[in-house]
């Protein structure tokens, strides 16, 4: 249950696609009905244009500040006492004095100042170990890109389709070199898949079968990549076996290809929808203007001449965003080449500072507590119940922190290149009490992609109950094809339903005048937080069996029940603080909708 948006309808994963210059709530509602969004195949207009763009109603009324009330003084006391104790408990769960230490100590390595560091998360370890190389590549790329832009790219916007996008040629040339060093001869496999997808788009054109073939092909590639783990040239013909000898810095090119698959779908569907409303059909006055919002960059089709193979490759293989995103649409990418965005130096300095701070926070956490190693070995036998709770909580915090660091690094690289991709993490993981709001703020660029290319084409909120399962099944398969993530996707779909139901039954319109309505919302928020923790522990930490063991340890003893009651009270206080944070944002005119 959300605390301040009970009066609103709750279509799944509604995203606030805000402009870069304000915090307007104007958005593409992740829940457009079928009257607003035409069917996936054979629609008369492109999905992004097939419904009326309007501001979804938001409660922008503000309440007096509660920060200086007696109630919140008590909450401050709880925070001051509980948060340090939580860190100490997490540390105790993985310290050398813990009886389970021998079970996971082999996963630890030597760190700074004689401390052990938990670098056992394979995804983050790969990024951390290669960070000096990535930083060096970025430092080479950015000056070269700006020099090329200075000497070869016109300063004025390129308003005519006859004006080539010269930067695309630099992007493509550098990406080819970059991907060769990254994946070696596997770049040929990437090229074959990307070319086949382009052929589907161009041969299909405006045919109703083109989107269908696009999805069939790209989903098949996901499954084949997983099954064959990147394929071997020798499996095609023994005479090609020598090509398997050069795999570059990263043998598993197929792991990162999941992001490429999203760009392939984006190009094909943007191209398909451009046949329904071409750029040329827009009046010349509007056509010559730069899009004024991020939403317009996404929804306005490019010129017909822009849907060519060179620009397609430049978008698909764009080096700064290739490995991990954030995800952009083809229309947005081309729009930023034709009408470059001005990114202030202050913003760039801020992003560098935020990235450095995040990296240092991660290093401190990895040295101070070893939660990933503990969860890998499920080394919590006979641990106090509270320690088990902290193992689960800090695992989720570390997942959020590592992903935020990775996405911020690559987004910073793109920002330094003059390309602004959506920001993925717009709230701290511990500042979420709504399941719906959580998915709007976590991996936001992916959320926007799902909205545009899956949810709305499937009919939006009119079929929300069915679309929830389709969306999260795809999300699970896209992440990795295994039972654990499928269980995660289905749990998320199931756990969203209570919030949707509660937000209708206990709407602000009906209950808002009740003096204790805010506290009722906080109780619902605690339920949401617990359900989100369970689902994410299943999907990304310890799996179904691990969560079952954790829950058994929590609820099989009287001590466990007492601990859970204390945790409930602490999360209740946390929810109240989160409500007031959002009220303070509204008083400043900030409406993030999550």
The SS-based structural class is mainly alpha
Percent in helix: 55-70%
Beta-sheet strand percentage? under 5%
Q: Which regions contain 5 or more consecutive residues with pLDDT less than 50?
A: 1-56
**What is the number of helical segments per DSSP (H or I, 4+ residues)?**
24
Strand order of the largest sheet: 1-2
Rounded radius of gyration (Å): 25 Å
Count of DSSP strands = 2
Order of helices and strands: HHEEHHHHHHHHHHHHHHHHHHHHHH
Mean pLDDT: 81
Span between N and C termini? 12 Å
Largest sheet: 2 strands, antiparallel
**Basic shape:** globular
Explain what the structure shows.
The chain is built from 24 helices and two strands. The chain has 594 residues and is an all-alpha fold. The two termini are 12 Å apart. Strands 1-2 form a two-stranded antiparallel ribbon. A hairpin with a 5-residue loop joins strand 1 and strand 2. Helix 3 runs parallel beside helix 16, helix 5 packs parallel to helix 8 and helix 6 runs antiparallel to helix 8. The chain is globular.
